[in-house]
Amino acid sequence: MASQPVLDLPIIEKFGPHRNYSNGLLLESGVEPDKLVKTHCCFCGMQCGIQLKVKDDQVIGFEPWEEFPFNQGMLCPKGVKRYLQGAHPDRLLKAYQRDPDAPAGFRVLAYEDAIQRVAEEIQKVQTTYGPDSFAVFGGASLTTEKAYLLGKFARMGLKTSNIDYNGRLCMVSAAAANKKAFGIDRAANPWADILKAEVIWIAGANIAECFPILTNYIWQARENGAKIIVVDPRITPIARTCDLFLPVKPGRDIALFNGILHLMIEKDWLDHDFIANHTVGFAAVAEHVKEWTPRRTAEVTGIAEGSIRKAAQWWGTAKSSFLMHARGIEHHTHGVQNCLGAINIVLASGRIGREGCGYATITGQGNGQGGREHGQKCDQLPGGRDIENPEHRVHAAKVWGISPDELPRAGVDVYEMFQRIERGEIRGLLNICFNPVVSLPHNAYIKWMLERLKFFVTIDFFMSETARYADIVLPGSLHEEDEGIVTTAEGRVVKINAAVSCPGDARQDWRIIQDIARALGREKGFTFANPREIFEELRVASAGGIADYSGITYEKIEKEMGVFWPCPSEDHPGTPRLFEPGSSNPIAKGNGPFYFPDGKARFNVAPYTPPAEDVDDEFPVILTTGRVVSQYLSGTQTRRIGPLVDQYPEPLIEMHPQLADRHYIKDGDWVRIEGRRGICTLRAKIVTTIRPDTIFVPYHWGGGKSINQVTIAAQDPISKIPEYKVCAVRILRQYGPPANATGLEPQQ
Amino acid sequence: MSKEKLKANIWAFVVTAILARLITLGSGNLDRFDAALVGYTFATLFAAFGITRRYALWLQRPPTAMYWTRGWKVFFLLLHPRHIVSNLFRFFQRLFVHYAFNDFIWRRGRMRWLAHWYIMWGCVIAGGITFPLVFGWVHFASEPDNLEWYRVRLFGYPTVAFPIRSLVGFLTFHGLVWSSILVIIGVLLALRRRLHDHGAAALQEFGEDILPLFLLFAISVTGLMLTASYTWMKGYGYDFLAILHALTVIFTLLWLPFGKFFHIFQRSATVGVAFYQDVGKQGEQAKCRRCGEEFASRMHVEDLITVEQQLGYHYEMPDSPVEHYQWICPRCRRVLLGLAQGQLWSGVRDQESGIS
Amino acid sequence: MYLPNQNEFFIDPARCIGCEACVQACSECDTHKGHAMIHLEHVDRGQSTQTVPVVCMHCESPTCAEVCPADAIKKTDDGVVQSARKPRCVACNNCVLACPFGVPKMITDFELMMKCDLCYDRTSAGKKPMCASVCPSGALYFGPRAQIEQLRPRSTPVNKFQFGRQTVATKVHMMAPKGPAKAQYVDVTDAMNETGRGQRISLDILSTMYVSEEQP
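ok -> structure tokens follow
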């Protein structure tokens, strides 16, 4: 029975989100900290170095860590105020059990009793409905050790094939495209290569707000003479002063890339040697893009033909370049095709695998990279291995001390797991580090599915919108309460260090998972004493795989300020730049730089298809979603940090005055967005910095403020990413606030 | 000597002379004057001269002079029969909340407030006891018919009487002890903050911030030692302590016009400022000549333009309808800074834009 | 009272992305803990994403200090203009209205003017000010002049600003273009009719979007 025990309001009253501000010790200007702990930010994939100020086992502030090479002390507002998530009034200090009779719907439970109950329920569900009926959701903010342990726990402890993680809503399209084209899923270059690029192509990445620290790299490149091309339906802060802005119509990125390649071929701006020696499949792609004349490209993308020609010329004739993209081109039903289109223009230029010649997806989550390499993905085993590959199964089984036959087969993605819940194939769920009620599209469906579960347990440090549906909530650990490694968006493995201990009954997440395994009587393989021991096993498990961490040690990370994987032996320096001529990899074995047996990269035909739900007379406006700089993902943490809430309190609908005028909407008016799946009423923000046919709403809020009430659940057939970036809506001016706007604070 | 200094010296001389006359008057032509206190008296006269001189110089600075004249105009405006009741109420309310309670320091920080409040009241009580006694304005005399009773005589005139051995007597005769204790607590709290607070540590200067605390501490401690000496130690070292105490007090008095203590006299200006702002709010507002928003009282903006001109600034914009940069609101000034820089770069970067 | 390594402050609003890391970090400094002194302004959010971070420019001859009736604003020997001295400030607002850069803030609750003081506890001990430490765009930069000249070959630091007939020289520098366009000073009042620079979306695509609706 996994429904909300009581209505939202009493739960919010007790468990928040409430805003935390500096007070007491945190406001005193004369505190000598007991220690400064060098660690990294708990938010995005940049993983900026930061020093946490600790006094009396509490994080009281930060000091810049100027020696860390990536960010050199720089931080965005989230990193600056992250210390306010500790000692938070909403922090879960006890285990809770769903109880509709308790005032806030949950009553405190002794930790051991909670673990016992979880184990019993898991056994009950699995005995009745089979091992696959219990599913596990993970997240990409977990350390790699936790992600690894979670994958191992699902496969070996629970023997379920149903595990997947919230990276499914992040960059899987890029990951799939990278594997198709390069055979490896990692940013090809370190960010330092941006500085040496002549042309920088930024597609669907609001760098200023989502990856603020990269801004300095972009601007520094421009100081060195680089030209910046930005493709985005909105004039983001980076786009404002870029050298060439291409205001693409949402969902049409692949058309643009095909059009660019068309012009590169027409003008012979190609690296023929590279194409011949290091790639396969160019001819088919060349044939395919023939139809993508500049005129047709302009018609489909909504970008002026002249700008397309100029972009092709700059890109085609550059000596060095860096192409980067993020969710803007990935969150689509053809997200993989978009990324393949981007990769095609990189491969055709031959500008990869060299200094100043690069390509990368900018992974969003803190451990978006490391969290997708070591086995919490439905089809994957540690080291980036494939769960359906017999050799890979043997390797993992050997490390875990089981027979390969005992390993479950590939499961399905997060969204399909909800469909399995609907079909009754999944009856129980363990969720950690994931808030699907806010972050998945068409979230009314997600709520219904959670309600269908027989048993739902969540491990979290705050009562997230999803945790409100749980039967048992176990108090997990905050980022600063545990140690472990994460891999940044550029492939640099860095070390998170514990600054304080877990308060109350809260435990480090890996301990909780092991406690459950023990209560289940399946503690074999789950008796690690600390994250280091997990990491040591992970090194062995990843050895020989594509994501080879075997040469990385905690000490090496600390000494060298991070190590880039692959790093196959302790004397190996790590691999900041992939695909360098002569570089070896375990797949190509000397045949070439790319991760295929022949060492060659793949061109992939990337056909254009319109979005799953295109606009029509009934729903004539494109809705696209994204982030704001002061909030992070589902807001479980950032909506509890007062100064960050104050910076951008509530979601606003960005719309162009041309569109607003047609609907008699003025700045600040309440506007109802109506789609086929749901509605959402928010205030309008009238700006000329967006395409007039598109509206934008940030997605960090829950309940009635969640734009994911409206977004579409259509998925990319390959990556299974949902199409957050395009759906069709209509807008209606309202004459007052909606019911949900009263009685709630902005962050709630 | 500049005109300003001459004026200030004259004022200082006049005030000092008046004070001297009050001392002779109050002490019955020095009949009731305690000769042992002559050092204190001269130090006080010097302090009066110094403070008045500095005050007068200060009032002649263009911005202060503007507030001074405006302040009096506003004052008479407020005395208008229609407003006088509410204004008097506000005046006394402010006197209590601002000066007696220090509400604004309370909001800056509790410890800071506690320190200031202890020091302030310690000093107010001590000053209230010491100066009238030293000047001979107040003295205690036993009642001719009852030696167990003391009568307080003000400027020689008898006022209330109380028994010597009573709580009132005990509290009165030890007034300086209580004030010393208040000051010592306050000073220790303030020093603690100054030692711990990183911000304070970076900004403080010895003469400005630390020395005054030391002086107050020295006065209080030597004063207490005097009491201890005659109460419990049969006057051991009393003469030496008396000289030491006198030295600390005299030095502090001499320091009054120069250092941080001057704020005691300067703060009175806040009353004028508050009423100036009240009047400003009721009057016409200045609208920013860029964004059109109201941002200050018109009177204030015009006064500032005058002051800036007196100070030699030239924010005039003769070729523009704005006329003077003072007519631009602070937010627009910040925005203009960014726009101006963007303008410099526009010729350099926009050429490369390929937008059509 | 010196700035170690000859570090200087350079600002380049053209780089600013409006993330407000500076604002959030400003309140973490021990000289004004809990109070952000830096200003982050949107030029006109309706029209553009352009933003301007404004720190105290630390004028050589600070107007704020001269118009202060209480003589409360002091400059250190190394040229840093401080917040109003607490005992003296009479909260008259003169400095707030007179500063040509719009920097001082009146904290009404405290009856006190506070302003950017270059994080004096940090800069006087050789550290960077909070805002320039964290600024992800390099719009706020604190370091040796030689270093920024090397990093930004197209820019040159300027520290003179023109307001009407008044030239104001400051300790903090602003990055201006090098070469023939090099400016001797930044003419602030010249930007009075300026609306902001940058990319614009001026597509007229709605006519196709609402085609059915527009038919008579």
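Chain A has 24 helices and 28 strands.
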